[in-house]
Design a protein that fits this description.
Structural class: mainly alpha
CATH superfamily: Rhomboid-like
CATH class: Mainly Alpha
Mean pLDDT: 83
Order of helices and strands: HHHHHHHHH
Oligomer: single chain
Number of helices: 9
Helix content: 55-70%
Low-confidence stretches: 1-8
Number of strands: 0
Length: about 220
Protein backbone atom coordinates (compact mmCIF):
# COMPACT_ATOMS: atom_id res chain seq x y z
CA UNK A 1 0.00 0.00 0.00
CA UNK A 2 1.58 3.29 -1.09
CA UNK A 3 0.56 6.41 0.82
CA UNK A 4 3.55 8.66 0.34
CA UNK A 5 3.32 11.14 -2.54
CA UNK A 6 6.34 12.40 -4.44
CA UNK A 7 5.30 15.99 -5.10
CA UNK A 8 4.32 17.03 -1.57
CA UNK A 9 6.77 19.92 -1.49
CA UNK A 10 5.84 21.26 -4.93
CA UNK A 11 3.71 24.35 -4.40
CA UNK A 12 1.19 25.07 -1.66
CA UNK A 13 -0.30 22.11 0.18
CA UNK A 14 -4.02 21.58 0.71
CA UNK A 15 -3.43 21.95 4.45
CA UNK A 16 -1.82 25.35 3.97
CA UNK A 17 -4.68 26.34 1.69
CA UNK A 18 -7.28 25.33 4.28
CA UNK A 19 -5.47 27.30 6.97
CA UNK A 20 -5.31 30.35 4.71
CA UNK A 21 -9.05 30.16 3.94
CA UNK A 22 -9.93 29.92 7.63
CA UNK A 23 -7.67 32.85 8.55
CA UNK A 24 -8.93 35.04 5.70
CA UNK A 25 -12.57 34.41 6.61
CA UNK A 26 -11.87 35.14 10.28
CA UNK A 27 -10.07 38.40 9.51
CA UNK A 28 -12.81 39.50 7.12
CA UNK A 29 -15.49 38.80 9.72
CA UNK A 30 -13.66 40.63 12.49
CA UNK A 31 -12.49 43.64 10.48
CA UNK A 32 -15.88 44.37 8.94
CA UNK A 33 -17.79 45.29 12.10
CA UNK A 34 -19.98 43.53 14.63
CA UNK A 35 -23.07 43.58 12.42
CA UNK A 36 -21.27 41.77 9.61
CA UNK A 37 -19.78 39.27 12.08
CA UNK A 38 -23.23 38.46 13.49
CA UNK A 39 -24.72 38.27 9.99
CA UNK A 40 -22.16 35.68 8.87
CA UNK A 41 -22.71 33.59 12.00
CA UNK A 42 -26.49 33.61 11.60
CA UNK A 43 -26.33 32.81 7.89
CA UNK A 44 -23.50 30.28 7.70
CA UNK A 45 -23.01 28.63 11.11
CA UNK A 46 -24.75 25.31 11.63
CA UNK A 47 -27.67 24.52 13.91
CA UNK A 48 -30.39 21.93 13.72
CA UNK A 49 -33.12 23.94 15.39
CA UNK A 50 -34.13 27.59 15.22
CA UNK A 51 -36.15 29.54 17.76
CA UNK A 52 -37.31 33.13 17.89
CA UNK A 53 -33.95 34.57 18.89
CA UNK A 54 -32.43 33.39 15.61
CA UNK A 55 -35.20 35.00 13.60
CA UNK A 56 -37.33 31.98 12.76
CA UNK A 57 -40.44 30.58 14.34
CA UNK A 58 -39.72 27.86 16.85
CA UNK A 59 -40.26 24.42 15.32
CA UNK A 60 -38.26 24.91 12.13
CA UNK A 61 -34.89 23.35 11.38
CA UNK A 62 -32.48 24.29 8.63
CA UNK A 63 -33.42 20.96 7.05
CA UNK A 64 -36.93 22.39 6.60
CA UNK A 65 -35.46 25.52 5.04
CA UNK A 66 -33.09 23.59 2.78
CA UNK A 67 -29.99 25.37 4.11
CA UNK A 68 -27.77 22.33 3.80
CA UNK A 69 -24.77 24.47 2.90
CA UNK A 70 -24.45 25.23 6.64
CA UNK A 71 -23.10 21.71 7.18
CA UNK A 72 -19.98 22.75 5.26
CA UNK A 73 -19.66 26.50 5.79
CA UNK A 74 -19.83 26.22 9.60
CA UNK A 75 -16.48 24.44 9.54
CA UNK A 76 -14.75 27.58 8.24
CA UNK A 77 -16.02 29.98 10.92
CA UNK A 78 -14.38 30.73 14.27
CA UNK A 79 -15.65 32.71 17.23
CA UNK A 80 -12.42 34.27 18.53
CA UNK A 81 -8.63 34.23 18.18
CA UNK A 82 -7.89 31.35 20.62
CA UNK A 83 -10.55 29.25 18.87
CA UNK A 84 -8.89 29.91 15.50
CA UNK A 85 -5.31 29.41 16.73
CA UNK A 86 -5.98 26.09 18.45
CA UNK A 87 -7.78 24.67 15.43
CA UNK A 88 -5.24 25.90 12.92
CA UNK A 89 -2.39 24.44 14.97
CA UNK A 90 -4.16 21.07 15.05
CA UNK A 91 -4.88 21.28 11.34
CA UNK A 92 -1.23 22.09 10.59
CA UNK A 93 0.06 19.10 12.58
CA UNK A 94 -2.48 16.46 11.54
CA UNK A 95 -3.25 17.84 8.10
CA UNK A 96 0.33 17.91 6.84
CA UNK A 97 0.88 14.33 7.99
CA UNK A 98 -2.41 13.01 6.56
CA UNK A 99 -1.91 14.86 3.28
CA UNK A 100 1.60 13.45 3.00
CA UNK A 101 0.13 9.95 3.30
CA UNK A 102 -3.02 10.32 1.22
CA UNK A 103 -2.09 12.82 -1.42
CA UNK A 104 -3.76 16.18 -2.03
CA UNK A 105 -6.93 14.99 -3.77
CA UNK A 106 -7.75 12.19 -1.34
CA UNK A 107 -6.94 14.36 1.66
CA UNK A 108 -9.31 17.18 0.74
CA UNK A 109 -12.09 14.66 0.05
CA UNK A 110 -11.59 13.01 3.44
CA UNK A 111 -11.38 16.39 5.18
CA UNK A 112 -14.65 17.66 3.70
CA UNK A 113 -16.50 14.42 4.44
CA UNK A 114 -15.36 14.60 8.06
CA UNK A 115 -16.37 18.26 8.28
CA UNK A 116 -19.89 17.51 7.07
CA UNK A 117 -20.15 14.43 9.28
CA UNK A 118 -19.32 16.55 12.32
CA UNK A 119 -21.97 19.22 11.76
CA UNK A 120 -24.54 16.70 10.52
CA UNK A 121 -24.53 14.80 13.81
CA UNK A 122 -24.84 18.09 15.72
CA UNK A 123 -27.81 19.12 13.60
CA UNK A 124 -29.57 15.77 13.97
CA UNK A 125 -29.21 15.81 17.74
CA UNK A 126 -30.45 19.42 17.91
CA UNK A 127 -33.53 18.54 15.85
CA UNK A 128 -34.26 15.47 17.95
CA UNK A 129 -33.83 17.38 21.23
CA UNK A 130 -35.50 20.53 19.83
CA UNK A 131 -32.59 22.63 21.02
CA UNK A 132 -31.06 25.64 19.32
CA UNK A 133 -27.48 26.84 19.26
CA UNK A 134 -24.94 27.77 16.67
CA UNK A 135 -22.11 25.32 15.89
CA UNK A 136 -18.94 26.51 14.19
CA UNK A 137 -15.25 25.76 13.92
CA UNK A 138 -12.86 23.33 12.23
CA UNK A 139 -12.32 21.08 15.25
CA UNK A 140 -14.78 18.40 14.08
CA UNK A 141 -13.05 18.12 10.71
CA UNK A 142 -9.62 18.04 12.36
CA UNK A 143 -10.69 15.27 14.71
CA UNK A 144 -12.05 13.55 11.62
CA UNK A 145 -8.55 13.57 10.13
CA UNK A 146 -7.18 12.02 13.33
CA UNK A 147 -10.01 9.48 13.14
CA UNK A 148 -9.18 8.72 9.52
CA UNK A 149 -5.55 8.04 10.42
CA UNK A 150 -6.74 5.72 13.20
CA UNK A 151 -9.13 4.00 10.76
CA UNK A 152 -6.28 3.41 8.31
CA UNK A 153 -4.11 2.01 11.10
CA UNK A 154 -6.86 -0.30 12.37
CA UNK A 155 -7.51 -1.65 8.88
CA UNK A 156 -3.82 -2.37 8.40
CA UNK A 157 -3.58 -4.04 11.81
CA UNK A 158 -6.66 -6.23 11.21
CA UNK A 159 -5.36 -7.29 7.82
CA UNK A 160 -1.73 -7.75 8.93
CA UNK A 161 -0.37 -5.11 6.57
CA UNK A 162 3.01 -3.95 7.82
CA UNK A 163 4.64 -2.42 4.77
CA UNK A 164 4.84 1.29 4.09
CA UNK A 165 3.99 3.98 6.65
CA UNK A 166 3.13 2.56 10.08
CA UNK A 167 0.72 4.26 12.49
CA UNK A 168 0.04 3.58 16.17
CA UNK A 169 -3.76 3.31 16.29
CA UNK A 170 -3.76 2.99 20.09
CA UNK A 171 -2.19 6.43 20.57
CA UNK A 172 -4.51 7.89 17.93
CA UNK A 173 -7.59 6.42 19.61
CA UNK A 174 -6.43 7.72 22.99
CA UNK A 175 -5.95 11.21 21.56
CA UNK A 176 -9.36 11.00 19.89
CA UNK A 177 -11.01 9.98 23.13
CA UNK A 178 -9.43 12.84 25.05
CA UNK A 179 -10.45 15.39 22.44
CA UNK A 180 -14.01 14.05 22.22
CA UNK A 181 -14.22 14.25 26.01
CA UNK A 182 -13.03 17.85 25.77
CA UNK A 183 -16.36 18.51 24.10
CA UNK A 184 -18.01 18.13 27.52
CA UNK A 185 -16.51 21.49 28.49
CA UNK A 186 -19.17 24.24 28.24
CA UNK A 187 -18.91 26.15 24.98
CA UNK A 188 -17.39 23.22 23.07
CA UNK A 189 -19.55 20.95 20.93
CA UNK A 190 -19.36 17.38 22.21
CA UNK A 191 -21.46 16.11 19.29
CA UNK A 192 -19.30 18.03 16.84
CA UNK A 193 -16.15 16.36 18.15
CA UNK A 194 -17.83 12.95 18.32
CA UNK A 195 -19.34 13.28 14.83
CA UNK A 196 -16.00 14.22 13.30
CA UNK A 197 -14.13 11.41 15.05
CA UNK A 198 -16.66 8.71 14.14
CA UNK A 199 -16.89 9.90 10.54
CA UNK A 200 -13.10 9.91 10.29
CA UNK A 201 -12.78 6.39 11.66
CA UNK A 202 -15.25 5.05 9.11
CA UNK A 203 -13.79 7.02 6.21
CA UNK A 204 -10.22 6.02 7.10
CA UNK A 205 -11.12 2.33 7.25
CA UNK A 206 -12.89 2.50 3.87
CA UNK A 207 -10.05 4.53 2.38
CA UNK A 208 -7.46 1.95 3.46
CA UNK A 209 -9.58 -0.81 1.92
CA UNK A 210 -9.90 1.06 -1.39
CA UNK A 211 -6.16 1.76 -1.49
CA UNK A 212 -5.25 -1.84 -0.66
CA UNK A 213 -7.58 -3.18 -3.38
CA UNK A 214 -6.15 -0.57 -5.79
CA UNK A 215 -9.63 0.83 -6.44
CA UNK A 216 -8.25 4.33 -5.86
CA UNK A 217 -4.71 5.69 -5.89
Amino acid sequence: MRYKINNFNEGITVTQGLIAVNVIIFLNMNLSGDDFFDHILLQYASTGWFDLKWGWLRGHSFFDKGEYYRLLTANFLHAHIPHLLMNMYGLHILGQYAEYMMGKKNFIIVYLICAIGSTFLCALVDVFMQESGLVLGASGAILGIAGALAGISIYRKVNNIYRGVQLDYQQLLMALGLNVALGLVPGISFMGHLGGALTGLAVGFVYAFLIEKKIIR
